[in-house]
Structures are given as structure tokens and as C-alpha cells.
Amino acid sequence: MFLDLECTGLTDVDDIIEFGLIGTTVDLQVMFEQQLLVEASDRAWQHMLDTPIVRDMHTTNGLIDELVAARAAGTLPSVADAEQQIITRLKSQRRRDGGPLILAGSGVWHSDMHVLERRTPKLRRLFADRRIFSTDVFRHVSLETTGEPIIPLSGSNHRALDDARHALEEAREIRRIFAGRA
Q1: What is the DSSP string of 122-177?
Q2: pLDDT tens column, 112-139
Q3: The domain spanning residue 95 has which CATH number?
């Protein structure tokens, strides 16, 4: 399960505002993609607007405009409702062997996992504790040893689904590199 989150920031005040999910098979074939905008608390929303780097990033990528429009239309789910929607989706796509889902993505170990624990603990519990595939580790090793990323970053706009797609492409390349060593 490739996951990326966009948040109002990275403090305990902040909330998730976008989920990007890609369910894959073990051989990294896409089973489904889901993008979900989420309502942030007024406090988290204000913190985002008061934090220039986050506000500018989410203004440039269009996320703030989409959130404002969805807020005005009253169509944003709460984090709890979004969590339940995602859990329902994941349970319908459960592994055949009944094992825990493997969380994958870029930064999932040092960032997203902690946000999931704090904001969506039921969702967090669906993922294996020790089988986390964080593609950014391999990206940094590649950059440090070769000066090149595993695959070029193709215009990241810091949108959750686009970032999850990039992590999936990195994972495919990592798998190709290791398969060549077998």
C-alpha cells in the first residue's frame, strides 16, 4: 500500500488534508488509486495559513483552492470519516494470506507513520510494524553514492497521489536493481 499525506504542517497542531493511496499487488501492479481531501480543524487550517512555506506550497499546487471550494460546498469528510472510508477500502482489498498490509512510500517511516498514529490510529494498526518500505532511504543512498536519484523527480507538486505514484515508480526501479543481483 503506497501512501502519501499532505498536511497543514508537521506539528502536533496540524491535520491531514489529503490522502493519496495506491494499492498494489506484491509485484507492484496497481489494484486501485484513491485521492481524498479531508477537513482540517480551524486551528490547523489557521496554522497552515500562518506558516509561509506550507501555505505557499499548497497555494502553488492548488490544494488550498480545492479545499476552500470543497469546504464551501460542505463536501469534505472529517479525518475520522476519511479513515473509515480508507479502512473499508483496504479491508475489501485485503491480502489473500490475511497478513498485515505493508506501508510503502517516500518518508512513510519518519513522517507519515507518526501522523497516522496521531490522527488515524485505527488505520495505522492495519499496517505491519516492521515491514515498511520507505523509498526515500534508497533515493538518498543513490544520491550519496552516484550523485543521481533512483529515477528523476518529474515535477513534484506535493500532491498526495502524485507523490505516491512517484514512490511506486521508485519502488519498481529498486526492485529491478535488486532483481538484477539475484
Answers
A1: HHHTTEEEEEEEEHHHHHHHHHHHHSS-SS--------HHHHHHHHHHHHHHHHHH
A2: 888 999 999 999 998 887 788 889 888 8
A3: 3.30.420.10
- Cα–Cα distance between 14 and 7 in angstroms, integer? 7
Reported as type and span, the H/E element at residue 101 is: strand 101-105
| Residue 167 · residue 104 · CB < 8 Å | yes
Confidence of residue 161 (pLDDT cuts 50, 70, 90): very high
Q: How many domains does the chain have?
A: 1
CB atoms within 10 A of CB 182: 4
Higher pLDDT, 82 or 99: 82
CA dist 37 and 16 (Å) reads 9
Rounded to the nearest angstrom, the gap between the alpha carbon of residue 120 and the centroid of all alpha carbons in its chain is 13
**Residue 86 grid coordinates:** 480508507
pTM of the model: 0.91
Between strands 127-134 and 30-37, the pairing is: unpaired
Instruction: Tell whether the model's pLDDT for residue 155 goes beyond 70.
Output: no
